[in-house]
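Shapes recur. Our protein:

. . .
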Amino acid sequence: FKLLILRGHHQPITAVAFGNTEHPLVVCSASQDHVLMWRLDECREKVLHGTDPRGLVLGTRPGEVRCVKFSPDDQMAAVCAGNRVLVLDVQSRTAHAELEGHQGPVTAAEFCAWQAHVVVSGSEDRSFKVWDCRTGALMHSSAVLTASPLLSLFIDGESQQLVAGGAEGQLCIFSLAEGHHHRHVTRVDLRKETESFYARRPGESGLDRGDGVDVALPVLSLARCDLPPDLGPGHGCLSPERTGCVWVGSSAGLFILNLASFELEAALHYKDFRNLSIQVAGSCAVMSSRGKAFCLLASMFGNEVAGLELDPTALVRSQQHPHLGTQLSVLPSSGVSPTSPLYFGVAEATRVKPAGHQQAATQSSLRDQPLVFHSRVRSSGYTAAPHVTMFSPKTNVKSGCKRPSRRRSTHTCQQCPSDSPPPTQLRRRLAVAQSPVAVRCVQFSGDGRWLACGLADHLSLVFDAHLTGAPAVFSGHDGAVSALGWSHDARWLLSASLDGTLRVWSARSREPALCLGTDVFPEPVHHAQFYYLDSFVLVSSGPEFQLLRHHLDTRKDEIKRYKQRSRCTRVFRLPTTGAAEITGLSAANEFYSHLVLAASRSRTVEVFDLNAGRSAAVIQGVHSRPPHQICQNQGSSFTTQPPQDYNLFATIAVGDGARLWDLRTLRCERRFEGHPTRCFPCGIAFSPCGRFVACGAEDRHAYLYEVGSSTFSCRLPGHTDTVSGVAFSPSAPQLLPKARRAADHTPAAGLLFQGRSQGTAM
C-alpha cells in the first residue's frame, strides 16, 4: 500500500466523493476555489514516472461546498454550494444545470438510481427538493420535516424509498415510486429505536452500551447495507427483492436499519472498540463492498481519523433475537395430544357414526318399536310391512336430465385468482339503518354468501353478499354488538355485546340457539369466535381466554318452551402473562390449528399452544400503545396460498399504525403507517389471496397495502366519518369498509368496492 497525495487546491478541501464505477475509478474534490476530478489510474502512472498528478477542473469558485455526489454512470456530478446545487458535466467540464430554491445551505444531494436525471437535495432549511437536472425544473418541494437541519440523504433503489436524516436523530422516509407523489411513509427516532432494540434483547440494555449519557444522535451519513437473504428483510414470508437495509452513521455509533419494518437489525457503538480513540465522531462515511463494510471516522474534538472494517453478517448474527427451541407454525406438524384440551373435539368427531350406519340404525329402531304409547294395546298394524307397493323409484331417468330442487344452492364455488387486482371501484353503497347509528363490526361468511353487521343499537343485520334485498334482523342484545363471527359452515352466527352476553344464532331461522350471560363471563366479552372448524367457541373475557365446547339445538320442547336444548361447557381457560387484559384475539377456523394469538394492554402479543395447553411465546413492545386488534392471514376456501404465508399476522394500534409479523421468526416484517389513526380504533383485514392488507382510517378512507410495500397502494373514498372496520369477501376481490358514524347525522353506510381482472367486473 502506497500513499497517493493529490495536490491542486489552494483553499481547504471541504467535500470529497468517489465515483460509482470501478473502471475507471475517479475522485472528485471541492473547495472554495475549484472543483477537481481525479482519475486515479492516471495519477498513479504519473507518480511512477516522477511527475505530479493533475486533476481536471470541473468548476471554478463555487463557494463553500458541503457535499459532492456522482451520478450512477459518473457522467455528472452534483455540487452543493451555498443555497444551490451545481450539476456539472464531466465530459464537457461545464455546468449542466444550476438548481436554486432552498432557503438555507444545501447539505446533501443524491441521484435517483432508476432515473439518472432526477436529483434530490436536502438543506438546512429542513426540507428536501426533487429536481429534473435536464431542464432545471423543480419537481417536488417538501414541507419542513424536522426541527433541525437535514444532514444526509439516501435513495434505496430496491424499495424506491428516500431516507432523510436530521441533526436531532430523526429519519424521515418517503416513497419515490411512480404514482406515489413523494408521499411520506414513516418517521423513525433513532434514539427510541435504539432503546427498543435493547429492550427486545434480554440481558442487555442501552446503558451498558454507553447510552447513560444524554447525547444526541445526529445522522451524519447514510449508505447501503448488503446482507445475505437469510438475514436481511424478507427472510420470513416476504420477498427480499422489495426490501433492504441501510447503514446509519451517527456521532456515537453505527446502526443497521431495516427499511421494511423500520427497526434496527444491529447497533455498534464506538466505545465497543478498545483500540479506537474516537468515541464521538464529527463526520462519518460508510461503504459496503463484497460482504464487507468500511467506515471512516473523523473526531469531533481533534484532528484524528480512523478506519473500521466491519462484517455486517457477523454483526447481525451476534445481535439477533434469540429463537425459540421449537419453531412455531399455524399449520400443525403433529396430531392432537391426548392431554390437550383440543382432544375433546377430536374424540367427539371420531365417535360420530357414518351417515350410512346412522340411517340403518334409525330404520331398524322404527321397525321394531310400536307406534302406540301403551304396550298392552293392540297395534293397528301400521308397523307391518305393506302388502301393496305404493310407489317405486324411477330407474329409467336419463342421467343428463336435470330436475329442479328447492334446496339446491345457487351459489357456485369458483376459484378466485390469486393475482387479482385490489378492489378499487365502488360497486354499491348501502345505509344499514334509517337513524344515525354506528356500525361496530362486519364479517363475511366463509362461503362468501352473507355479510353480518353489528350495530350500536343492539341489532345484528345479515345481508347477502351483493347488498341487495332486505336484511335479516337478529335482535336480543341489550347493548351494542361488539363482535361477530360466522361458523365454518355458515349455519351459525355468533355475536357478543357490551351487555356482557354471548349469543349464537341460527342463520336460517334467526332464532337464538344459545345465550350465555354474566354468570359465565364475570367480565365483558371483547372477542368471540368459532374455533377448530366449529368444534369450540373461543372467548376473551378480562385477562383470560376460555375454550367452550358447545352443542347447538334449535328445537323447542312443547312443554318447557323457555328451556333451551343447546349446551355449553368450559373446557379450558388460560390467563395472559402478567394478567393483562386481552384487547385482541385471533385463531384460525378455516383449518385445524393449535395456536391462539392474544394481544393485551401490556403492549404484548402472546402465542398460546393449545396442543400443549400453555403459552409458547411472548412478543414484547409490539406497539407504542396497546394493540386493539390482531388479524391472521387465514385465506379462504376459494384461494390457495403457499404454506408459509399462513404464518403472517397483523396488529394495529391507535396512533402507531399497523405492523406485519411472522410467527416463525416472532419479529416485525413490515410496518404500515400511511393511514391516520390518532384517536379512534380502526380495523384491519387480510385479503383472501394474502397479498393485500386493508385498514380503516380517520380521514374517511379505507387504505389498501401490499404486503411487499410499506406505503399504501390506493385509498378508497366514500364514507362521511371514520372508517372503523373493513372486511374482504372470501370468494371475490371485494372489500367492505364500514363507518363509525356519519358526521352529518346520516345513517351509517357500507361501501362495497370491486376489483377488475382483464377488463371484466368480478
